[in-house]
Specification:
The protein is mostly beta strands. The protein contains one helix and five strands. The longest helix is centred in the C-terminal third of the chain and has 6 residues. It is globular, with a radius of gyration of 15 Å.
Length: 83
């Protein structure tokens, strides 16, 4: 939830621009995989989107995206630090 004093940012893309703010969530769960203290961007998405999962999350936690099956799952490798 937006709180007074939260910084507001603007993202630009092919569809134009959108305003958003950043929050720290206590945790998030993707299937059985849990992520704690995750920073998320909160903004308005088109109605056809339920949400977006960014490359920062996919890479940090070594998720594998199977495009043939349209499935997402964590790899057996440990997490890595991004430089």
């Amino acid at each position: 939830m937006y709180e007074n004093g939260d910084a507001i940012y603007e993202a630009y893309g092919i569809g134009g621009s959108v305003l958003f703010y950043t929050k720290i969530m206590n945790g998030s769960q993707i299937d059985t995989f849990n992520i704690e203290n995750i920073e998320i961007d909160v903004g308005v998405l088109p109605k056809v989107h339920n949400g977006l999962l960014g490359m920062d999350i996919l890479m940090t936690y070594n998720f594998i995206v199977d495009m043939d099956k349209l499935e997402l799952y964590p790899s057996n490798n440990k997490t890595k630090n991004l430089v």
